[in-house]
Specification:
two-stranded antiparallel ribbon, mainly alpha, 5% strand
């Protein structure tokens, strides 16, 4: 009872609501798979997935930019028969795919989704941290959670009774160890500057000084390369290189067992993108605007946010109208179907854009949260704290989506490296550069008066 009474009901509601962030990487899968398919189609000068559709009265066949195709693929994986190869170690074989997917729900716990919320409630000053688990060693915990996902690949390779799976798992183990060392050393320079292992403290330091990418540009590129390699994506996907290992550690998997590996990989990209954005792009902080300024002008801040979203809606409408004009004069056989489908998108986009513009105007004119004095200190209201948290969250998600696109762009641009080249790059190039960067950063920090 003492634990329950130690917090107000508002604190409990917000604290429990923060656990919803555990599902963000899973939701990102719905975004990343269509983004990758459409992005690959764009880079290879083809349309991408556009065959599957749902029929809606008046608007005809709705493809939803490939989302219907992804729904079909997911349904197919879900209902396919699951089996284990003869001679495999069945317990480990079935448990292995669940490990990387389970880790997906742990890693978001230490990411600061928004800045610390400080507001007045019932005559008391309430403080709520941005992460679900506000730890002084948050970055170490995140690395620990990420390392556990490699066990899924290792167990899959060992239990499948296949030489291709076994070799794939060995390569995964080697790559995970190699590039986690590079990751750790490349970010140490930033930790020296921030003086903390807490991700919230690192974001606060960037907000008060400069972004990590400006203070540590060499570390940023080393960390980004090592992180892409650690996710096992091309050009570092030697653990599942088709010409050599069929499909690597998941050669013998199908149905949702393969689906869990697949979703684990995309969720890992999401978490890595959030980590890169947090360490080197200021995390939740808004460029050139402090949190105090946002809270002081909360109505204007929310209005600008709504108008930015409205601008994105207008950009989407511009794209649709442009495609419609090109399609109308083309000789494509199904152009009338697609033009009818675009009418639905235009209608939805106009409604959403108008709603954001109206919300921005209302926020600018009428939303002016009150402030109160508690023990002689000015404290924000709950509305201002929630508004600031919403802005921080959207800023962090926007930065992470940008890095997700970098992952896709790299995969469909660069050819796969050879295994020995991957090891050479990690141990003989990136590791040495990261150590040199750390030494230089430590010397400069000491000369400038640091501890």
């Amino acid at each position: 009872m003492d634990i329950i009474e130690s917090k107000t009901w508002v604190e409990w509601v917000i604290t429990i609501a923060k656990f919803a962030f555990c599902f963000v990487p899973v939701l990102y899968i719905l975004l990343l798979i269509p983004m990758e398919r459409r992005g690959a189609g764009f880079m290879q000068d083809r349309q991408g997935p556009n065959r599957s559709y749902i029929k809606i009265p008046f608007f005809g066949k709705i493809r939803a930019f490939g989302y219907v195709q992804n729904m079909c693929d997911g349904t197919k994986l879900f209902f396919k028969e699951m089996f284990a190869p003869t001679g495999s170690k069945k317990f480990l074989y079935y448990v292995a795919p669940a490990i990387p997917f389970a880790i997906v729900f742990l890693s978001p716990c230490v990411i600061p989704w928004f800045g610390p919320m400080v507001f007045e409630w019932g005559g008391k000053v309430v403080r709520i941290a941005g992460p679900i688990l506000d730890s002084e060693v948050g970055i170490l915990l995140l690395f620990g959670f990420s390392s556990l996902s490699a066990y899924g690949a290792v167990l899959a390779g060992l239990s499948s009774r296949s030489k291709y799976s076994y070799l794939g798992s060995l390569r995964t183990t080697a790559m995970t160890i190699s590039y986690e060392v590079c990751q750790g050393l490349s970010m140490m320079g930033l930790l020296v500057l921030a003086g903390s292992f807490s991700l919230t403290d690192i974001v606060t330091w960037q907000e008060n000084h400069v972004w990590g990418i400006v203070a540590q540009p060499v570390a940023f590129f080393c960390f980004l390369i090592a992180t892409i390699a650690e996710t096992g994506r091309a050009p570092f996907d030697v653990a599942e290189g088709e010409p050599e290992l069929v499909a690597g550690y998941h050669t013998e998997y199908g149905a949702m067992q393969f689906g869990l590996f697949y979703m684990g990989e995309y969720s890992h990209i999401c978490i890595s993108s959030l980590l890169v954005a947090t360490l080197f792009l200021g995390g939740y902080s808004v460029p050139f605007v402090s949190t105090a300024t946002i809270q002081t002008h909360m109505g204007g801040s929310l209005a600008i946010l709504c108008w930015v979203l409205a601008f994105l809606g207008l950009a989407f409408l511009h794209m649709i109208y442009r495609y419609s004009r090109k399609l109308a004069v083309s000789k494509q056989s199904n152009k009338m179907e697609i033009l009818q489908e675009y009418k639905l998108y235009k209608m939805i986009a106009w409604v959403v854009t108008a709603a954001f513009i109206a919300a921005g105007v209302c926020s600018w004119l009428y939303y002016n949260p009150e402030y109160s004095m508690v023990n002689g200190v000015v404290v924000n209201s709950l509305g201002a704290a929630l508004g600031t948290a919403a802005i921080h969250l959207l800023v962090l998600l926007a930065k992470s989506v940008f890095f997700c696109w970098v992952w896709i762009w790299v995969r469909w641009t660069l050819p796969r490296f050879r295994y020995d080249h991957v090891m050479h790059l990690g141990w003989k190039i990136i590791l040495n550069i990261a150590i040199l960067n750390l030494v230089v950063t430590a010397v400069v920090a000491k000369l400038m008066g640091g501890n």
